[in-house]
Design brief:
Elements (H helix, E strand, L loop, with lengths): L5 E7 L8 E6 L2 E6 L21 E3 L10 E5 L2 E7 L15
Length: 97
């Protein structure tokens, strides 16, 4: 989600604890990593579909990676990535001469 002040990245991480999730920013790449163990597979049950998402995300050019903040609540990771000051538009007054 993008607004005039920041980017907000939401990642659903059900059944994970805060200490099992790692968030890093290096060379303008934001990486969210963690490990969730697959529940013990039971031979008497059929698994029709198992979904997992992996990967890293490059930061937008106008993001300030030095001020990234994150919170984790009820399996939802929210990463707040402020836009840099230089990226905000500035109105310039036109002088009449």
């Amino acid at each position: 989600i993008e607004d005039e002040k920041e980017y907000l990245i939401k990642a659903e991480l059900p059944d994970m604890k805060k200490e099992d999730v790692r968030l890093t920013v290096e060379n303008d790449v934001l990486a969210i990593s963690g490990e969730r163990k697959f529940e013990k597979e039971e031979k008497s049950k059929k698994y029709h579909r198992v979904e997992r998402a992996y990967g890293s995300f490059s930061l937008p050019e106008d993001a300030d990676g030095s001020k990234v903040a994150a919170d984790f609540n009820d399996g939802m990771l929210r990463v707040h990535l402020p836009k840099s000051v230089k990226a905000k538009p500035k109105a310039i007054e036109i002088q009449v001469g």
